Amino acid sequence: MSLGVAVIGAGVMGSEHARLVREETSGAHLVAVCDADPARAEAAARGARVFDDAHALIASPDVKAVVIASPDATHAEYALACLAAGKPVLCEKPIAATAAEGMKIVEAELSLGRRLVQVGFMRRFDAAYREMRRTLASGRIGEAVLLHNIHRNLAAPDWFTGAMTVTNSFVHEIDISRWLLGSEMLSAQVFPAGPAGLLMIVMRTAKDEVVSTEVNINGGYGYHVHAQLVGTKGTIEMAPPTHTLTNAAGEHGFGFPRDWIPRFAQAYRDQMQAWVNAAREGMVVGASAWDGYVTSAVAKRIVAVMDKGDAARIALPEPPPLYLGA
Ligand SMILES: NC(=O)c1ccc[n+]([C@@H]2O[C@H](COP(=O)([O-])OP(=O)(O)OC[C@H]3O[C@@H](n4cnc5c(N)ncnc54)[C@H](O)[C@@H]3O)[C@@H](O)[C@H]2O)c1
User: Fold this and answer.
1) Residue 309: per-residue pLDDT
2) Tell me: the pLDDT tens digits for 213-224?
3) CATH number of the domain encompassing residue 82
4) 289-305 and 171-181 helices cross at what angle (nearest 10)?
5) pLDDT tens string 224-271
6) Among 70, 168, 275, which is best to mutate for testing ligand 1, by the most ligand atoms less than 8 A from CB?
7) Whose alpha carbon is nearest atom 6 of ligand 1?
8) How far, in Å, is the centroid of ligand 1 from the Cα of 94?
């Protein structure tokens, strides 16, 4: 039976998730949308029911699974309500506005005795990252030594503060670095550079790998994500993110999109399909609530030291058995 999916938050991400459910996902259909702005909800719903109260949407019997794409500060409240209703959740990153709220979601799953939350770290579904992980596992480049990440945005809005560079943007690299390397982060240090909010963040893992990331929220030319993994016997890095090269106006090359949706279009699509497939089987794939919590806990430690220039020691609790092997 087709899974009735509802979307909370119909902004940039929520309207794309609603479109994916409507047009590009098999085994699911869009039943409802909720947004603080009714016009946005209406536009994304395209005939599905519109709610002005997210809790009423979560309680609705025809809503069998929920995508949370409202602002970070609302994630924990809505995810906990979904868990109380026993409904699977695809919660946009970060899992919550704080690590403490993320832990409440973990605790709610522990008391239910089952997992229902997938965090929207869609890079785990990206073909390039998947190939890098497979290649590392194959032994072809030897043991991992260093991971270089680049995360550049065109321009950040005024309200995007220094800490959000870590808690909202860099969380992608925390998650994907853990996932690629299969390592937890042990320490981190932040090197601010230039006048426009650029952060160079260097982390060391429990297996002694180094993860360097340029988080550049005002890169000035487009959305650009890149990664290169250096092993003891070779390296693997992303190819330019393009299917075509254009000759025009005296130049040869490809363009960068203004935001993340074109770059990760297939990853968002594959993430949605995988979530629906798993939800229909009563399972969870992708980043777990535990992964979401760990990512926010690492981000919190980095934010605590970023203005002082100190290295942060990162101490994480052991994963509960519910999450082992997840
Ligand atoms: N996975 C990714 O690559 C990615 C990319 C961008 C954003 N995000 C995450 O997605 C979430 C949404 O980001 P966005 O860029 O779409 O933001 P946005 O501002 O475009 O959309 C948020 C929407 O939520 C609505 N809203 C506000 N409060 C609400 C509430 N209490 N209940 C219901 N709706 C409410 C707003 O009216 C708005 O339409 C954020 O948590 C962000 O971190 C993820």
Assistant:
1) 87
2) 999 999 999 999
3) 3.40.50.720
4) 120
5) 999 999 999 999 999 998 999 999 999 999 999 999 999 999 999 999
6) 70
7) 13
8) 11
Ligand 1 centroid distance, CA of 186 (Å): 31
The structure tokens 């709220």 sit at 101
Distance 68 CA to ligand 1 centre (A): 8
Please state, as a whole number, how many other Cβ atoms lie within 10 Å of the Cβ of residue 164: 18
Q: State the chain's mean pLDDT as an integer.
A: 97
For residue 35 the two structure tokens come to: 């947004």
Residue 317, amino acid:
P
Tokens standing for 196? 């426009």
The string of DSSP codes covering 10-28 is -SHHHHHHHHIIIII-TTE
Residues with CB under 6 A from ligand 1: 8-14, 34-37, 40, 54, 69-72, 74, 92-93, 120, 122, 168, 260
Overall size of the chain counted in residues? 326
Residue 22 and residue 115 share a domain: yes
pLDDT-flagged residues of the chain (< 70): 326
For residues 232 and 282, membership in a common domain is answered with: no
> Residue 197's domain is classified under what CATH number?
3.30.360.10
Residue 188 belongs to some domain of the structure: yes
Q: Which domain holds residue 170?
A: 124-263
Domain annotation covers residue 9 = yes
Report the separation in Å between the CA atom of 121 and the middle of ligand 1, taken as the mean of its atom positions.
14
The answer to whether position 303 is within a domain reads no
